[in-house]
TrEMBL record, chain A:
This is Cation/acetate symporter. InterPro entries: Na/Glc_symporter_sf, Na/solute_symporter, Sodium:Solute_Symporter. The keyword Membrane applies. One of its GO terms (cellular component) is plasma membrane. It is found in: Cell membrane. One of its GO terms (biological process) is plasma membrane acetate transport.
From TrEMBL, chain B:
This is Uncharacterized membrane protein, DUF485 family. InterPro entries: DUF485 (IPR007436). It comes from the Bacteria. The keyword Membrane applies. Keywords: Membrane, Transmembrane, Transmembrane helix. The chain crosses the membrane at residues 55-77, 89-111.
Amino acid sequence: MTGTNTAINLSVFGVFVLLTLYIVYRVSTRNVSASDYYAAGSSFTGTQNGIALSGDFLSAASFLGISGAIAVNGYDGFMYSIGWVVAWLIGLMLISERLRNTGRFTMGDVMAFRMRQRPVRAAAANATLVISLFYMIAQMAGAGGLMALLLDVHSKVGQAVIIAVVGIVMVLYVLVGGMKGTTWVQIIKAVLLLLSVSLLTIFLIGKFGFDISSMLDRATQRSPLGEAVLSPGVKYGATGLSKIDFISLALALVLGTAALPHVLMRFYTVPNAREARKSVVWATWMMAIFYSCTLVIGFGAMALVGTDEITSAPGGENSAAPLLAFKIGGTVLLGIVCAVAFATILAVVAGLTLTASASFAHDVYANVIKHGEADPRDEVRVARITAVCVGVLAIAGGIAANGQNIAFLVALAFALAASANLPTLLYSMFWKRFNTRGTLWSIYGGLTSCLLLILFSPAISGSKSSVFPDVDFAFFPLANPGIVSIPLSFLAGFLGTVLGGERADAEKQAEMEVRGLTAIGSGLR
Amino acid sequence: MTKALPSVSRPASPGFATFEEPRHSLLIDGDGEPDYSSIQTSDDFLALKRRITRFILPATLLFLAWYVTFVLLSAYAVDFMSTPLFGTVNVGLTMGFLQIVTTVIITMAYARYSKRKLDPQVEKVRALAETDEELA
């Protein structure tokens, strides 16, 4: 790829950054209260928030990672798409409305509602920070890989500089705009992303005469695997163990989505439960369209570009969508697609930074350190300082993880969310007896078991593709720990509760249940 | 929360029965705070819970079972999933796409059910705890 190409990419991307920064600056209010900073004053409509929700969720992993995974592994890559769509039903029916009615700013608000505040909030903040960092590092690593392709930056130093630039821009979004600015960035980016994948898809379908079958046929001819790419098992079907890994991944995807802290926090930007529900309905539609499109784009890339060319390109698997764009629209379309992908990374990372900083400031600083009596202005100041620290950590982590497969890294973040958060949220909403000890056991049980299993998995050591390929301490055979750590966390929460600890506070439980379903006492309409 | 006037939270005296009648069931304690325990056991709230469960429980079980079936078939019934349905499109790809379709259908069904059956019932329960100012 040539110099003019790079210039186009850079200028499209530059325009996006300048435009969004301007919007972020315009919408941000001067005198920011905690509610403005964390939840945009709960002023967004369900529709706006639904679009932003899909913006938060459709990360670079979804766009580049999934279309790449489909283009290379065919059917097994498609699995990610389905898990991520189906998962929204959990968010819709079990989580979103109750969360909106019960909490104010963070996941910790809900988990700690009827428990002892300090330990539970600290635990919720720990889980939020770990999950957000994991997710963020995946996104930053993606930025590095993308740049390798886009700007022809092959040196690790050059990519590191780019990762740092992404980090700085996203911290700027968060500092200047708070939740309101970040939400607008998500909305703009989601619309751009959905438009470009829809247009690509329509073009592809048209190119093959509106005949999906002939596109797939062509795809099988361009893949070294032949017909097998259309069947399950290319990536995960080799052994009995790899099949269990596949099931584990599928579980983590479907149970993790609605428990991601940055997705949960989005439900606070709308004024009431009805709008929260509407958000998820909108988000589900966006996801359904988006992931149907990735299927076409993935197989389309396989058909038009060919698997071999994709895997040997600088960005590897992740470069399928950009290469496809180049093939059908030349440098201009490549520039646009890359800029959209880049915007995606930027926006998602900004959302994560905001979530992590809110969790630290609201749960740890205001409630654990200051016993719930912090000055709101101090709280926001702490949140901003945290945002900067989180940004620095993410830049460092992203540079370190540069070159890893991003869809896979993100899948680990989902396993963490499904293990640490989902059991705790469900228990505290639906199980009367659940108490403080159960809460702590399920959060920490899920979090530590998941982290340990990742540490001792082939993802970290012992195989060609792991982080440390030269050493081998991988005694846990699965790359994705979900199938073990999710049930373990449910079990830990159950045992922690029934084996003792203080009895659940019946009055608080009544308050939480009534408030969760009806918003009585929350001040919401 | 505003403080309710004491007269609201106490049973109306017989002389004012007609005046107070529409608000006879206000579930607010002496401080004007909602009395959550009484609301939790009130008929209206229990009815709301039943209506929620009636939809959410079967729907959740259904979609999880359908998803797990799909995953298990993909892992252990490769031949079945590879059976061509039309042209090169096989059972597995079709089933996967249907997962997305059913998700949208359940989402729309829940949105419709909430609007018709849940939201009005929520309003009923909320009326139990409405304070003077909100009624005014």
